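Sharing a chain and its predicted structure for anyone who wants a worked example. Both blocks are below, sequence first, tokens second.
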Amino acid sequence: MHSQSSKGSRWPLSLHLEEFELGGKAIQQNSGHSGNRNCQVQVRGPVPNKHTQDWSDAPPRFYDRVMKTLPLMLAIALSVVSCQAAEPPAQVNKQVNHMDWKPLTPEERRVIEQKGTERPFSGTYEHHSEHGIYLCKRCGHALYRSDSKFDSRCGWPSFDVEVPGAVLRHPDPDGERTEIVCAHCGAHLGHVFLGEGFTERNTRHCVNSISLEFVPSPETAYFAGGCFWGVEHHFHKLPGVLSTEVGYMGGDFPHPTYEQVCTGTTGHLEAARIIYDPVLITYRDLLQLFFEIHDFTQTDGQGPDIGPQYLSAVFVQGDYQRREAAAVIAQLEKCHYRVATAIRSHAPWYAAENYHQDYYAKTGKQPYCHIRKKIFDK
């Protein structure tokens, strides 16, 4: 186990032109960045006319000095621009943009982007009754809890209240109805109607099934990132996380022991199981924390913990988690990180021995092999 590596995050070189001496008077130009390499250019001679920038009165010796230093200054500046373009940024921007959204089918675009309506009694969730959360199909943010859903027999899913702050209302262009949209990405959901008396709240959100995606609640996520003590420690502190457990996943035979997994021959990875409320925290938030607490560029383990049981992986359940994991990895790769984390399908989960559970909480120690390094701009 080790402290977080600094792979994938080098600081770009900066150019410093700190002092020009014109006519014996020093003009300070501070780049605003303190570094260990300075380029100091000193030019002596008369100052040109400030209105015409005329150097005709300057002696030939001074003109020669300027012309000799100019190519060097240009070469250094070009090399700095090239270096800055090639280096990965220190942070990955998490601003809302189309890269965060699920690619839509033509029919989904017709409803979600062009404000269309799906045919009544044709949607997936009209008679859906599982316990969980309905998310925005486009951006994945929570919109409705299943306990707010009711059967209005209108042909579309109906809800009498949204997750607080998740849905916005706008006057519909028809001048009569009120449109409802996702507050995060603006996706068209449907319309809201008041005063119909279906429930005590006297409100009906009439929503297109095609605008929604359902996840069970509470939801479960699985992450493997080296020694599972440190992984669990960071997730356990996160608001919205209901419980955590460490264990083994992805191996060839059931119910392995810690000693068997440590041989590196069982195929199991040390992993953490995270149970969370998708209304309070999104799967994307969990993924970003996971990538900030371990070295996802290391290919043979984590720090000095070398072996297949310490490899980095996300075990996904269903298309939604797979798509989110792939999107975050693509975001990191776009910023020039070499991501070694594997996306693997869900596998049987085997809880580790009791003495491994909540290790740092029990011992009062602090993790030294998983130190959070912020790379996503919140």
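Comments welcome. The CA atoms of residues 261 and 268 lie 6 Å apart.
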